[in-house]
Specification:
154 residues
């Protein structure tokens, strides 16, 4: 496959494998990336292995830096976020199981970036349509996705 998709301003993925049971990518996080909103995945788990650099992972009550060679798992329903706070790019093997509509979400986000239309409203509309894949963990962010996403979808 080896297709590159852009998820946000500091994160790109290369699709390695896509089946109904498994979506595997190699993700590259740019140095000094923005801390994304805390979110959870209601229907799939994620497994990460850091290949190069350092990835910072935030959970509800802690943050941890993972370096090359280290692995960690994020279970379905666990609120988290991750970014590269370091000076060098970080690359990560990232596997989502079962795959569900993870690829669809990532392709929609990539399309927004390719078209130069990645506004907050457009991203909210994509998240609203993919609430089975990714949900903001805060009530305020969920409300924003519901309201702004509904208005943007019209």
């Amino acid at each position: 496959m080896n297709e590159t998709l852009t998820l946000n301003g500091s994160e790109q993925i290369v699709v390695v494998e896509s089946t109904p049971d498994r979506f595997e990518v190699e993700a590259t996080y740019a140095p000094h990336g923005a801390r994304p909103p805390m979110h959870l995945h209601p229907n799939h788990s994620e497994q990460f292995t850091v290949l190069t650099g350092t990835l910072r992972v935030g959970l509800a009550d802690s943050e941890h830096d993972y370096t090359a060679g280290e692995s960690f798992d994020i279970g379905a329903g666990i609120a988290h976020h991750m970014w590269n706070a370091g000076d060098e790019p970080a690359t990560v093997r990232w596997i989502s199981t079962p795959a569900g509509r993870v690829e669809s979400l990532f392709r929609c986000l990539d399309e927004l970036h390719r078209r130069g239309k990645a506004s907050l409203a457009a991203q909210a509309a994509v998240l609203r349509r993919h609430s089975d894949v990714m949900v903001p963990s805060s009530a305020a962010a969920r409300m924003l996705v519901r309201v702004l996403g509904a208005v943007s979808s019209r």
